[in-house]
Amino acid sequence: MRTNxxxxxxxxxxxxxxxxxxxxxxxxxxxxxxxxxxxxxGAIHKRGEVHDGTxxxxxxxxxxxRGITIFAAAVSCTWDGHRVNLIDTPGHVDFSDExxxxxxxxxxxxxxFDAVAGVEPQSESVWRQADRHGxxxxxxxxxxxxxxxxxxxxxxxxxxxxxxVPLVVQLPIGSEDAxxxxxxxxxMRALIWQAGRDTYETGPVPEPLREEAGRRRRxxxxxxxxxxxxxxxxxxxxxxxTERTLLxxxxxxxxxxxxxxxxxxxxxxxxxxxPLLDAVLAYLPSPxxxxxxxxxxxxxxxxxxxxxxxxxxxLAFKVTATPTGRLTHLRVYAGxxxxxxxxxxxxxxxxxxxGRILRVQADRHEEREEAVAGDIVAVVGVKxxxxxxxxxxxxxxxxxxxxxxxxxxxxxxxxxxxxxxxGRLSSALARLAEExxxxxxxxxxxxxxxxxSGLGELHLEVAVEKIRSxxxxxxxxxxxxxxxxxxxxxxxxxxxxxxxxxxxxxxxxAHVVIDVEPLEEGVTGFxxxxxxxxxxxxxxxxxxxxxxxRDALAxxxxxxxxxxxxxxxxxxxxxxxxxxxxxxxRAAGRFALREALRRxxxxxxxxxxxxxxxVPQDSVGAVLxxxxxxxxxxxxxxxxxxTAVVTAxxxxxxxxxxxxxxxxxxxxRGTFTTRQAGLAPVPPSVAGTLLAR
Length: 693
What we know:
The protein is an alpha+beta fold and 693 residues long.
């Protein structure tokens, strides 16, 4: 019988640390897997359950009430002599920014898939996020004990929807309720979890599965040989691969991102968790395997190796307020940080003292004397740092690239129910925006209203509830409004603008000529180019023109919405020996683009969500009709286990209140999930109504 390998790692953290995240669609089992990992490693002694509200990482009251992960939570444990720092990330689309900030500081990830549903919409979204960050992954197909579970179908969806090569290293023993273990295709052995036991027993491959296991082992060898040069050499020489070569080849393929190792199990029944931990150590990188982190110092590129002896450098990726103080969560990339030392906030130039260093276990903390390269910790005493702030040694400044922040797509007006709470509301909103950069607070100049913007209706609901429960402020909330954008359909060329201002003393003079054109279809954002030759507009003035153009993007000519999806090219200009300045050229750029937008053909854009609706077969007609009434465009419909799964692109503004409508049309049996699908033009008939408001 195999025993748990609970241990305390004392070896160099550069090679014996794994920093990983758990990624998946909502309800795929991320939090349950995290809970089982903590139990298997001895970090906890009683398994918690999501439905009971007793898990370690879903510690917030709203998470327990709603039964979903809302906030990324870090935990730490040891397995086989290695320290595993793990972040359980949200699976709901409204909290994708939490995933983004986590991926920025992680070295690897475990992507979890439902064995019945396969790759779901948010599974695909977080996979693409991990692609952008170059994070190596392994996959875990969960819930093999469910009715309709099928490993091969789930793997086929990974291949088709994610565009990667799945390398399946396990074969299930039994199916659905009879699922009892897996065949390890590398060691060609069976791992069996007996009823009521927390660990597995090792035995020979069951006779009925030997032929199938041999066939799959052969397919695995061929796949690895195709992807790894060293494995191919051995395969050509011997027509087979040893377990050691397979292990080495799978690790190399994983680190390069050429394929994904696939394991399987049932986290709820505690089957498959220990082999998953072994795979984390075997295939995912340690901080020592990662390239030196790159940053800038005085305009030059600087590298820092993951070495405790290097100058200290860390990135703050999360800020939380607790009853005992403000916690700043850090990923230490280089150097050593000791309690009581001073660090430099590279963005502001402010020096702050670190009062305490904590190893985080969700909402519990273990104090430490120091943190070294590769660690993920929280510190107390740093007052001004925000998510994305670089903290470094005062004598060796460095600025690391911060995680990107998604643009808000939904807004609500909020005000205190009692006038005496206005100040407390302002303080609560400022604290929310500090903890979650994807929440934006602004004041409407015309109405005087305070507007809170976020990534979705649920995102704002959670934020408002935090104000009520966490800060004791009763608020009145307006109807959600989506964030529209304007874009250029047909631009202008050769627009000339002269900015001349003379009011005594030094004047202002700037002469610019610009072209405005739309970006490629489906591309958002803003691009600026300077095509001026002969030094007619110096480079510093060209940068000022770009800054002025960005100022003009704040309000478009149709309805005053932000403008996106255009390219501005500075083609010519002129300066004055005395009156030209960066201020003058910035003003010229702002006024020139405003005029160009008025002369261009501009259309209104609205955020669109990809909606996946799962309903009984007898409700499909009603659901399709309702989606059509919401201007939804159905892109697919499939049948699965007596239910229909409908996929459609629906304007986000039409989805407010959809949950209650769907429950009513399906007698409470219908469910839906969404993921952001970018921006789409608003039909002219609808745009006219919106702009007339």
